């Protein structure tokens, strides 16, 4: 690689990662009325990215093998910013949400380069762990059947799932499993990225299923619970799971379904972590008393949640504690109805500290 291409690669990587961090900043703090202010706070990181991408077509040396993935990731980020800018101009909040959906597509395109570009490797770790050289070195030679993969048809297909297994997986130890359920309009392919940094950093396997229907089975026949059990068994047959650390979590409709399915007497999950979820006290009243007794549940909710007001979470915590569950509650004053990715690591630390016997 000549000096020019090396310099351009460094510039492009920096611009791309910076723009991705800006998208994450907006997504984490998005409350639709605040979007103009958020856009003002991040400035225009897409301008530097657009200029750096323009030079990709001139690459001729070894860096050319990186071009397709950098271009795909960069183009997704630019599309995301275009939608966000249009949302500010038109007042159409749906365009903002469409724009933010480009971020996980960019992450998916970029992730394979973590194995060859140290800045990308560090980017996919939690910020507090990016200085850990030993951890970074563990990704150099991936074990077989590790990394990001998909099962059950095309990525994001109904009833299928996306999976992350840490590249340093070894069968000589057991590994916690997180089954993370997307929100009502999402899919497992994109929701996986809410957990990837934490899973890489702390050593956990993450499965992100896609609902059988348009959203999780919150009414009518429940086809999702048997599918979740099937997915868990499929993963357990191939990788060595910790039977005392099987977490069911989810966002919004996914969080609500983690209550509905996870409180079933036959649920195989040892821990629950609903985020921004709806809850009715009847869920606790109707749940099996033995299932609820000492069940670890980590509830996360935003004080600014405009879809499911925070009083709903406070009610859930009271009802679950009264029923005998072991409840941790994190109320976030600056969170609206979105997923706080920094909580993934905190939930994993909570899970690590509270192993319990597998149900049944």
TrEMBL record:
Q: Transmembrane ranges?
A: none
Protein name, UniProt field: Phospholipase/carboxylesterase
Task: Provide this UniProt record's keywords sorted from A to Z.
Answer: Hydrolase, Signal
InterPro entries according to UniProt: AB_hydrolase_fold, Plant_Biomass_Hydrol_Est
Specify the species: Phenylobacterium koreense
């Amino acid at each position: 690689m000549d000096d020019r291409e090396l310099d351009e690669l460094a510039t492009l990587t920096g611009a791309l990662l910076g723009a991705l961090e800006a998208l994450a900043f907006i997504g984490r703090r998005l409350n639709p009325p605040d979007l103009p202010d958020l856009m003002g706070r991040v400035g225009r990181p897409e301008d530097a990215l657009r200029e750096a991408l323009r030079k990709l077509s001139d690459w001729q040396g070894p860096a050319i093998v990186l071009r397709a993935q950098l271009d795909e990731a960069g183009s997704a980020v630019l599309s995301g910013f275009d939608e966000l800018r249009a949302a500010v101009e038109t007042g159409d909040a749906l365009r903002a949400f469409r724009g933010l959906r480009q971020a996980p597509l960019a992450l998916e395109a970029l992730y394979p380069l973590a194995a060859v570009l140290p800045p990308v490797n560090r980017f996919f770790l939690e910020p507090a762990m990016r200085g850990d050289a030993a951890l970074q070195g563990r990704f150099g030679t991936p074990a077989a059947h590790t990394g990001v993969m998909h099962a059950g048809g095309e990525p994001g297909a109904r009833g299928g799932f996306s999976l992350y297994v840490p590249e340093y997986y070894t069968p000589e130890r057991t590994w916690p499993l997180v089954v993370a359920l997307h929100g009502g309009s999402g899919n497992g392919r994109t929701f996986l990225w809410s957990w990837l940094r934490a899973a890489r950093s702390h050593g956990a396997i993450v499965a992100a299923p896609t609902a059988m229907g348009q959203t999780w089975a919150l009414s009518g026949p429940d086809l999702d619970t048997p599918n979740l059990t099937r997915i868990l068994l499929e993963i357990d047959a191939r990788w060595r799971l910790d039977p005392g650390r099987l977490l069911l979590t989810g966002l919004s409709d996914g969080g609500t379904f983690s209550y509905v399915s996870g409180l079933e007497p036959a649920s195989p999950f040892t821990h629950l972590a609903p985020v921004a979820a709806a809850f009715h006290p009847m869920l606790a009243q109707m749940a099996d008393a033995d299932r609820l007794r000492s069940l670890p549940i980590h509830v996360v909710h935003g004080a600014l949640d405009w879809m499911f007001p925070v009083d709903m979470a406070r009610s859930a915590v009271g009802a679950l504690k009264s029923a005998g569950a072991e409840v941790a509650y994190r109320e976030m004053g600056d969170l609206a109805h979105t997923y706080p990715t920094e909580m993934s690591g905190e939930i994993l630390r909570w899970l690590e500290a509270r192993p319990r016997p597998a149900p049944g």
